Amino acid sequence: MDDTDAARREGPDVVACERCPALTDCRSRIVNGDGPGDAPLLFVGEAPGETEDREGSPFVGRSGDVLDDALRDAGLARADVRVTNCVRCRPPDNRDPTAAELTSCRDHLDAEAAAVDPDLVVTLGKVPSEHLLDRSVAVTSEAGSVDEARLGGRARRVLVSLHPAATLYDASQREAFTAAVAEAAALAGVGDDGDDGGQSRLGDY
Ligand code: URA
Asked: Ligand 1: residues within 6 Å at CB?
């Protein structure tokens, strides 16, 4: 079966895909991105975990709670942003997605980014950061920094962040994670900044 036969889409949502045999066997469902179709911020994680696989939405487990807290601190609600993953199906035993799985799922992410056309993409953790920026990334030291990646048909600004789960294993990372989300909101001119009539600072980059 070639890729054209293996994947079906409704807008940015993938409704059928069997490109990755190990993921097709393991998943309960395909977990598509969630949030406004014109969100200014697109958060990109790695792959769904157990809770996401069960509920069908990204970042609804403990990592999602951490993300929601950081958004709230920045003056945003989950409903203000779009959240998705590099890979839409849960890997067995929560292992990292393989390079082949990231590549297979890439056009789904490209289609979503092209449809949403966010002002800023935020990569949550090492896997999405390295996948999108196509280089090695030291997320702890680079958190909050902005780079550029080709995604959804054009070059886009990408802000590197820790994965929210990192703060569950190491509470000292919480501040850096919260600061990266606040910086993303400030750069896009939304949240607390937006309430004050703030403007996107992305022209500085
Ligand atoms: N971790 C991720 O990278 N994505 C999710 O959706 C949940 C946890």
From this structure: 45-49, 52, 58-59, 61, 63, 85
Ligand 1 centroid, distance to 196 Cα (angstroms): 31
Task: Tell me, in angstroms, the distance from the centre of ligand 1 to residue 63's CA.
Answer: 7
Label residue 153 exposed, middle or buried (CB < 10 Å: 0-12, 13-18, 19+): exposed
Where exactly are the structural domains of the chain?
A: 7-204
Please return the burial class of 106, using the count of CB atoms within 10 Å of its CB with bins 0-12, 13-18 and 19+: middle
Model-level pTM greater than 0.90?
yes
Name which residue sits closest to atom 7 of ligand 1, judged by CA: 59
* Residue 11: predicted pLDDT: 83
Write the CA distances from 88 to 60, 84, 171, 191, integer angstroms. 14, 8, 28, 28
Burial of residue 168, with CB atoms counted within 10 A of its CB: 0-12 exposed, 13-18 middle, 19 or more buried: middle
* 78 Cα to the center of ligand 1, angstroms: 14
Whether residue 120 is predicted with pLDDT greater than 50 in this model: the reply is yes
What's the CA-to-centroid distance between 49 and ligand 1, angstroms? 6
Cβ count near 21 (within 10 Å): 8
- Find all residues with CB under 8 Å of 105, minimum gap 6, and list them: 19, 20, 86, 87, 88, 89, 97
Question: Any idea which fold 7-204 has?
Answer: Uracil-DNA Glycosylase, subunit E (3.40.470)
